[in-house]
Amino acid sequence: MIERGFDYLARLLFVVVALALFALALSLVASGAWQLLRGALSGEIGIYNLMNGVGLLIVSLAIADVAKFVVEENVVRERELRSPAEALRSLTKFMTIIIIALSLEAVVGIFEAGREKNFEQLVFPTLVMAAAILALVGLG
What we know:
It is built from 4 helices and no strands. The chain is flat. It is mainly alpha-helical. Helix 1 (2-42) runs antiparallel to helix 2 (47-76), helix 2 (47-76) runs antiparallel to helix 3 (84-115) and helix 3 (84-115) packs antiparallel against helix 4.
């Protein structure tokens, strides 16, 4: 009975956290859209605003994906991980989300630095891409 109660509370906590993450992702999407709209109305729309909007969308996508993962793995699933294969599948899914988010953010950063011809700013996106590649190699 106590175990069932704690299981219920844990699932409730996972749902609350996932909803908070989804709300954050939605607010990032709204913020990016607002920046683009404000830039378009003031005549300041440009590649910087567009790339900033893309960056916000990428981050919001990653956050929403993590929230979905939390719900799928901890709320919807009715049983614990029973085999190493299930644990590996779950970990692979989570790491894939992270690798995709890192790769997209790095591509946006590299594109932005190249577009502005500010090649000193290429260091950070290159390190992010290297981290994504290392994570992918580690996952393999």
